[in-house]
């Protein structure tokens, strides 16, 4: 399968950035609608979403990108970080679609924050070229994500809870180790963790990771629950049985998007594309191909 990598220029309020991309398949001679896969965070990288290359086996060109602020895209200065907002990332996505000339026909699979971003794209820009939308493991209200995290953390040993409460800044290694214990149950139940999972998190949380986007507060107080009914594209909502995105966290998407479909993966947590890969890919490819 052909793989193409590069960078897309992006200008926002007079500041110039570069958005890294990776395309699996032939975008120029495509026979099916391309699929843009949007990573979480904010501030992670596309690596952990790499199982979505399986969609190329169904003749969908698959496009990954690293959002500006981390990984292989432009990292931000302190001054540039003040530009960060939901609108910034929506603009980056619009620019990305237009660069490849696919703005009139494309699908999106958005994971976690990526699903939130995709929902904002539809509500803010109407996104008439978006044919089908997959919102995977995403909160509709960020406060409910925090509530769910606290609930799921409660049964863990006290040292794990203490290390997470102490925080990454105070003790990065202790926080990282504790989070990996939590993620083994509620992040990705494939053990040992896939290399791509660890790589994506190292970009923002590793010893030399860039936390600029994560610390920016882009999602603070965020909610789309009162606007989600404006999503007027065919939508599939996904979550896992052990997901931080519990049913009540994703409920607004399921109940308020007209005609939304919902699949819950019973053996998965936050990353069913690793945990139940074949089943997940069959469901997503089937939905996109309808």
Throw out a few tags for this protein.
290 residues, alpha/beta, Rossmann fold, 10 helices, 8 strands, 36% helix, hydrolase, Pro_imino_pep, peptidase activity, AB hydrolase-1 domain-containing protein
Description:
The two termini are 24 Å apart. It contains ten helices and eight strands. It has an eight-stranded mixed β-sheet with strand order 1-2-4-3-5-6-7-8, sandwiched between helices. The chain has one domain: 3-Layer(aba) Sandwich (Rossmann fold). Strand 5, helix 3 and strand 6 form a beta-alpha-beta unit. Helix 2 packs across helix 3. The protein is α/β, with parallel strands linked by helices.
Task: Produce a short descriptive summary.
The protein is of the alpha/beta class and 290 residues long. The chain is 36% helix and 19% strand. InterPro entries: AB_hydrolase (IPR050471), AB_hydrolase_1 (IPR000073), AB_hydrolase_fold (IPR029058), Peptidase_S33 (IPR002410), Pro_imino_pep (IPR005945).
- CATH 2nd-level architecture: 3-Layer(aba) Sandwich
In total, the number of domains comes to 1
Q: What is the CATH superfamily classification?
A: Alpha/Beta hydrolase fold, catalytic domain
- CATH C-level name: Alpha Beta
Summarize the helices and strands and which ones pair or pack.
Blueprint: E1 3-12, E2 15-24, E3 35-38, E4 62-66, H1 78-81, H2 86-99, E5 106-111, H3 113-125, E6 130-136, H4 142-153, H5 158-166, H6 172-186, H7 195-205, E7 234-240, H8 247-256, E8 261-265, H9 272-275, H10 277-288
Parallel strand pairs: 3-4, 3-5, 5-6, 6-7, 7-8
Antiparallel strand pairs: 1-2, 2-4
Helix pairs in contact: 2-3, 5-6
């Amino acid at each position: 399968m052909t793989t193409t990598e590069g960078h897309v220029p992006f200008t926002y309020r007079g500041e110039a950035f570069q958005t890294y991309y990776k395309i699996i398949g032939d975008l120029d001679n495509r026979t099916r609608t391309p699929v843009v896969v949007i990573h979480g965070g904010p501030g992670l990288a596309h690596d952990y979403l790499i199982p979505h290359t399986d969609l190329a086996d169904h003749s969908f060109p698959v496009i990954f990108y690293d959002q500006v602020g981390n990984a292989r895209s432009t990292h931000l200065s302190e001054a540039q970080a003040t530009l960060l907002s939901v609108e910034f990332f929506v603009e980056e996505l619009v620019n990305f679609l237009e660069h490849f000339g696919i703005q009139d026909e494309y699908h999106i699979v958005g994971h976690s924050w990526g699903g939130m971003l995709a929902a904002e794209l539809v509500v803010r820009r109407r996104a008439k070229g978006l044919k089908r939308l997959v919102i995977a493991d995403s909160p509709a209200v960020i406060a409910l994500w925090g509530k769910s995290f606290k609930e799921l953390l409660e049964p863990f040993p006290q040292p794990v809870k203490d290390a997470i409460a102490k925080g990454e800044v105070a003790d990065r290694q202790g926080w990282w180790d504790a989070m990996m214990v939590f993620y083994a149950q509620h992040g990705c139940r494939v053990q040992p963790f896939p290399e791509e999972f660890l790589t994506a998190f190292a970009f923002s949380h590793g010893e030399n990771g860039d936390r600029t986007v994560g610390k920016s507060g882009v999602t603070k107080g965020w909610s789309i629950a009162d606007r989600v009914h404006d999503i007027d594209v065919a939508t599939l909502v996904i979550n896992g049985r052990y997901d931080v995105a519990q049913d009540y966290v994703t409920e607004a998407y399921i109940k308020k998007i007209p005609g939304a479909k919902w699949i819950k993966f019973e053996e998965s947590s936050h990353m069913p594309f690793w945990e139940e890969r074949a089943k997940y890919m069959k469901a997503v490819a089937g939905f996109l191909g309808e």
